[in-house]
Amino acid sequence: MTAIGFAPHDHHTCISEALQQAELRCDRLKLQFTPVRRRVLEILLQEHRALGAYDILEVLAADGLGSQPPVVYRALDFLVGHGLAHRIERMNAYTACVHPSHDHTPAFLICRACNAVAEAQTELDQGQLGAAAKSTGFTIERIVVEAEGLCPNCAQTQTQVKTQVKTSS
What we know:
6 strands; Arc Repressor Mutant, subunit A; two-stranded antiparallel sheet; single chain; alpha+beta; four-stranded mixed beta sheet; globular; 169 residues
């Protein structure tokens, strides 16, 4: 399982490649990738963290692309429904999919301090849950895996603060 989201990378290339993959997916499936849908995906890609619908709406309103909640919810429904974004259940927030070129079962590593999100890929039929489902004849249709903790930056900051506190005591 590899995670994307916490490692340093060329963020500009990350965004442009993800947008290009989204365009290709929409073309292939004959879907309308409207300017609002594209902008919502771009906002999610820029952050690499979970964003609430109203956070996204503020940016859309500033861009002149709409200021009413249905605008952002329709775009998010489209993006999630077509595998271009994911809903983070625990936070009632959204993040861009980092693997939009293929279907997969994501697992999310969520930083409790900064809300950064790394997406890892899992498989429905692997692991103990897959084995349990198979042995009982259960068909898994959807899995939501969300792990909460500290990203490397926040963990380092927390360690530095603890060290400073011990040193000053």
